[in-house]
Amino acid sequence: MEIHQIRYFAAVAREGNFTRAARSCFVSQPSLSQQILKLEDEIGQPLFQRLGRRAVLTEAGERFQARARRILREIDNARRELADMAETGGRLVVGGIPTVVPFLMPGVLEELRNSDPRLRIELREEILGRIVDSVHSGELDLAVTSRLGPSTELQFEPLITEPIWLVLPVGHPLADQVDISIESLRDEPFVFLGETSSLGHQVTRFLMDVDFDPNVVSKCSQVRTVKNLVAHGLGLSFLPAIAAESQGESNLVYRRLRGISPYRELGIVRHPQRYLGTGARRFCETVKAHAATLRNSTLE
Fold first, then answer.
1. Mapping DSSP to helix (H, G, I), strand (E, B) and coil, where does residue 170 land?
2. What is the predicted pLDDT for the residue at 298?
3. Which CATH entry fits the domain spanning 89-158+265-296: 1.10.10.10, 3.40.47.10, 3.40.190.10, 3.40.50.150?
4. What CATH number was assigned to the domain covering residues 3-82?
5. Could you tell me the CA-to-CA distances from 193 to 40, 154, 184 in Å, in that order?
6. What is the pLDDT of residues 275-291, one digit of tens each?
7. Residue 297 has what pLDDT?
8. Residue 101 and residue 95: Cα distance in Å, rounded?
9. Which helix (H) or strand (E) holds 7?
10. Which of these, 205, 199, 299, lies nearest to 256 by C-alpha position?
11. What pLDDT, in 10s, does the model give residues 108-150?
12. pTM of the entire structure?
């Protein structure tokens, strides 16, 4: 059994397709398929069901996947530990959800680039479900997300708890109020982030808890789209405090809700069995420092 065969197996399991797996591994599809067949021959059982273009794990494949992940994680941990001993900058792959990356990551990455030019950092912006899968599989070293559910085995280190604010266009009849009652919003149209957004799910759950059924007229995938629609008077929205920009938003106002305080918690996500090298530790320290700055300014 060869390491590259295990990597190919993990790629097919992740992608659910031999062609996409081969592309992600930078090999030809026939070469990857041949190595998977050799691996199945050695194990003595098929690891995948070939359903047209789809590749679905068999029961044996599901059991092997857990072992394969541990093997690849240990190999990667060994490589990182040895790289630290050699005092090389190394490579770090980090992720973040779309409602965090634009507001936190640019400053973090700029500081790390200036303090340690040898450290190569790759950033991937994805929805929460894909971030979780990528940290599990080892594709991501670390990620910054909202709090995960209790069922995950990943480690979540809290950074900040931030309020979720009502966003209105300047000139709206409610914009002059310091705080706004939820009842006064019953007849207002709303612009929300869509079902793939973890923030969208949090806002929906919060509104259900307070028995508020919003009139949703638009669903978007990007915070910037939400802001533009609100600025043009096409609806109100709820966004986290981190999304409130200090400059260039003279057409939007952010207000708290009266008597209720929706919020979300942000933190650093990692696999507890993954080795944290020098670069990863520097990343965590820098993220914490920038999060503290946000907490002391925008979030107050």
1. coil
2. 57
3. 3.40.190.10
4. 1.10.10.10
5. 44, 25, 22
6. 788 888 999 999 999 99
7. 64
8. 8
9. helix 3-15
10. 299
11. 999 999 988 888 899 999 999 999 999 988 889 999 999 987 7
12. 0.70
The mean predicted confidence, pLDDT, of the chain is 89
**In this model, does residue 229 exceed pLDDT 90?**
yes
Report phi then psi at 125, rounded to 5. -100, 120
- When computed from its CA atoms, the radius of gyration of the chain, rounded to whole angstroms, is 23
The C-alpha torsion from 284 through 290 and 293 to 295, rounded to 10°, is -70
CATH ID of 160-263, from 3.40.190.290, 1.20.810.10, 3.40.1190.10, 3.40.50.300: 3.40.190.290
Token pair 């559910």 is found at 149
Q: Is 297 helix (H, G, I), strand (E, B) or coil?
A: coil
CA-CA distance, 18 to 50, in Å (whole number)?
9
Tokens at residue 191, please?
């612009």
pLDDT the model gives residue 248: 57
